[in-house]
Write a structure and sequence with these properties.
The structure holds two protein chains of two kinds.
Chain A (H helix, E strand, L loop, with lengths): L1 H12 L7 H12 L8 H20 L29 H22 L8 H8 L14 H9 L5 H4 L14
Chain B lengths: L10 H16 L1 E5 L2 E4 L22 E6 L9 H10 L15 E7 L6 E7 L7 H5 L5 E3 L5 E3 L9 H5 L6 E2 L18 E2 L5 H4 L6 H5 L5 E5 L6 H8 L15 E4 L2
Parallel strand pairs in B: 3-11
Antiparallel strand pairs in B: 1-2, 3-10, 4-5, 6-7, 8-9
The chains are: A mainly alpha, B alpha+beta.
The structure holds iron/sulfur cluster (2 copies).
């Protein structure tokens, strides 16, 4: 129980200063000898410290990260292929992109309005990964990253093309 | 101004009424009594509709297909349709493949004369597919193009049964090769869109552009100055099964 509390404290502070690297290496050596040596109280404390250092290292390392202000949950890793050109600030896009696209899709399909700022194809053109050319495929790809993280099923791609600049070829009847 | 809805028994009279409504929609200025300056060519097929504007009910897009010019055995229009709309699936049961346009052969049994013509969604003014749809997914746009809103289609296939022209297909398998401008997918019904994404850009439908014989004319039926309206006004043309009084936007010549 104490271990858990210490752990969370360490994660909250995320301070590598509290557990310098040299100490970690020393702790590791001592920890490896732990089986041979008697379970002295101070050695146990050292081991606990070592565990905490490992956790702290995870906390400050990049992806998959325990980021945020003292957060303990993993955040999605989003690859933004062409940053800085979006039609609205990121916070607004994160919260409202589905509403924007929903209203736009109805206006475009039912009323024939073209050239609206919100457009799924425009999203893809900017956000398709430079590696795969798609907004899907892996958990770092733009759409899939957040949606798999939030466990929200992506229906869009049952019909829409997730690859930028895709050219279909028809077949002979 | 609302879309011309014509509950008229005579399709020719109905068409004249539609054309009249279109002229009113295009708008004209009275210069002197009896002398009108008409704004025509507003809905020119070569002109893209401005971004942010809605499809105009003053326009009614249509096709005129000359069966006399349609070459026997030619499938250029079908190939162009498949390329444009990303139709590439080949299912084990060929009857399940999507078919937006097909060639039909008419044979006069008395003398063996054969006529070929392409058949697709006829873009009815009174579309039964729209009447029967339980979700409102099957819809007619203000400019007369009949579409399926796949966001609301539940794949019940009532519209397929209601359509007298076998124009609609159900997508049976998951798709991955869609064109970005033509989203389509499993579980929805689809049919010819009159290449709505091209028309909105001021282009012709892919089939019209591909026909080496020039057998198809696309344009605004409501615009008396358009090539299609002029032709319809001067030669006999037919709506297939005109007795159903659906007032189709696709008309045929030479059948
Ligand atoms: S031809 Fe068939 S699918 Fe096309 S509008 Fe008429 S009923 Fe609907
Ligand atoms: S299959 Fe789709 S478009 Fe056709 S009637 Fe059913 S819900 Fe409407």
């Amino acid at each position: 129980m104490k271990l858990l509390r210490d752990q969370s404290a360490a994660l909250r502070t995320r301070s590598p200063v509290a557990y310098p690297g040299g100490m970690a290496r020393g702790s590791l050596r001592r920890a490896l000898h732990l089986g041979l040596l008697a379970t002295l109280p101070e050695r146990v404390t050292d081991f606990v410290k070592f565990v905490l250092v490992v956790f702290a290292a995870i906390a400050v390392s990049p992806a998959p990260t325990f980021a945020g202000e003292g957060g303990r949950t993993a955040k999605p890793v989003i690859e933004i292929a062409n940053p800085g050109k979006c039609i609205a600030p990121a916070e607004e896009m994160r919260r409202n992109h589905m509403e924007m696209l929903k209203h736009q899709r109805d206006r475009t399909l039912r009323q024939g309005v073209r050239g609206e700022p919100a457009s799924l194809n425009a999203c893809i053109e900017c956000h398709a990964s430079k590696k795969t050319g798609s907004v899907l495929g892996g958990n770092e790809n733009f759409c899939q990253s957040c949606h798999s993280y939030a466990a929200v099923k992506l229906d869009c791609w049952d019909c829409h093309q997730p690859k930028a600049g895709f050219k279909a070829t028809g077949v002979k009847p | 101004m609302t879309a011309p809805q014509i509950p008229d028994s005579n399709p020719r009279r109905a068409f004249i009424a539609a054309a009249g409504a279109g002229v009113a929609g295009l708008g004209f200025t009275v210069i002197a009594p009896g002398l009108h300056l008409m704004a025509v060519g507003q809905a020119n097929a070569a002109e893209a509709r401005k971004a942010g504007t809605v499809a105009s009910p003053a326009v009614r897009w249509g096709l005129l297909i000359d069966a006399n010019k349609c070459a026997p055995g030619c499938t250029k229009c079908i190939d162009a349709c498949h390329t444009e709309n990303g139709i590439s699936e080949k299912l084990p049961d060929a009857r399940q493949n999507s078919q937006w346009i097909r060639k039909i052969e008419l044979v006069d049994r008395r003398n063996g004369r054969k006529t070929e013509l392409p058949m697709m969604c006829q873009h009815c003014a009174n579309p039964p597919c729209v009447d029967v749809c339980p979700t409102g997914a099957s819809m007619k746009r203000a400019d007369g193009i009949v579409l399926v809103d796949r966001h609301t289609c539940i794949g019940c296939r009532y519209c397929m049964m209601a359509c007298p022209y076998k124009a609609r297909s159900f997508v049976h398998a998951p798709l991955t090769q869609q064109n970005p401008e033509v989203p389509r997918g499993q579980g929805c019904v689809e049919s010819c869109t009159l290449c709505v994404h091209r028309v909105d850009k001021g282009q012709q439908p892919a089939c019209v552009e591909s026909c080496p014989e020039g057998a198809m004319t696309f344009g605004d039926l409501n615009d008396p100055a358009s090539a299609i309206a002029k032709r319809i006004a001067s030669v006999p043309t037919t709506q297939v099964r005109a007795d159903l009084r659906l007032n189709q936007g696709v008309r045929y010549e030479g059948i």
